[in-house]
Fold:
Amino acid sequence: MTSTMTRPKTMAELRESGWQPRPVKDELRDNFIQALASGDELFPGIIGYEDTVIPEISNAIIAGHDMLFLGEKGQAKSRLMRALVQFLDPVIPYLDIPACAVHEDPYAPITRLGKDLVANHPMQDIPIAWWPRAERYAERLAPGTKFADIVGEIDPAKLASGHSMSAEEALHFGLIPRMHRGLFAMNELPDLDELVQVGLFNLLEERDVQIRGYPVNFDIDVLILFSANPSTYNRSGKVIPQLKDRIGTTIQTHYPRRREQGIEIMKQEADIGTDGEYPVLIPPFMEEIIEQVSIAARASKYIDQQSGVSARLSIANYRTMIANARQRSIRLGESPAVPRISDLGHLHASSLGKLELDMMGSSQMSDTQVIDAIIAEAIGFVFKEYVDEHGLDEIAEIFAKGVRIEVGDMLPSSEYANRLQRVPPVWDKAFEVNAAESDAVRASCVEFVLAGLYVTDRISRSQLHGRIEYEI
Structure:
């Protein structure tokens, strides 16, 4: 039944096809096991979780558990929840009833409309439609969510039209009944109203719904997912114990364990082209510094670590760095555009709002000063790695001869070349780019060395109107 032309359109045709219903957790498990046995990539685009998070998700799916994704912001919690949709069947049949808010299982309807249709009509007259898996997932942000949004409520408009308050027709269905036979995700669980939490733990345990105490029970078939930040989830009173107890599996997410993984995520998610009319050549040390900024922020005493530092910081900064390098290339007619340290002066715009200062600390530094300090720390960390691995003595000797050099994000690369006519062979070895191939590449290498020498207290610098002058 892969073609829309061959899919059954009536109950009679559906029975002839041999289709059999499965609970959504069984459907998810069966398809996941098939993907696992086939050696398929289980979660495309998810990097760094192969040995930690993904095995826990795999166990939860096979165990048939509802799941809580517990982690700080920017740890792919929502992406992982949405990715579970791929393990649903491509389409499933449902009773084609325009007035019904639920995609009814043709063989086991749960609403009065569905039951009446199946009981009172011959199978060849019962219409069947098909529900694609992309529509079988819904999510909700907890703040401001009410019981009526999630479960349901008496609909005043339906009462006004003459329906009895005790009749099913008077109900407004919430998101969970509407996701019957699908997946429902609740983001930021600790911010959910306690009354709604009570409704959810009843759903998790009993799998039925009662609205306003009326004897209208729905045997809901749904996989429920949650996300939360550890700092609020573990705070006493934020999440009621009965709800915690009924969540089958808690999956702890984390930031990339290695910088190389962070760079891979950053480049994948930034998805910014470096070819075209104005190509960009990015030295490896510039990518390393951008990711190291996020790593340094996650360990900084000036940053509120409970809020976390999202991978979006690296992604936004990476795009800003490339944008400024490309802007310079367009303005000065240089090609390719090569990012340099002075481009990092524009990271304030893409970093502000993504870092929350630790207001309980004693530091009186402003947001801008904190960002400057973190960038300097990242430059120094990467620079020391290059010094330890490659040795930059020959390069340092050039600057030790009393060189005074001015740098800036809009300064032509030829200005650097005029000051450094000789390019030692160690440049190419150390920087993994051919520093002699163009003025722009040389300029980037020069700025990296100068900034590294400055942040390690080997040279001095002065700054005025966006231009920086270094002096031995």
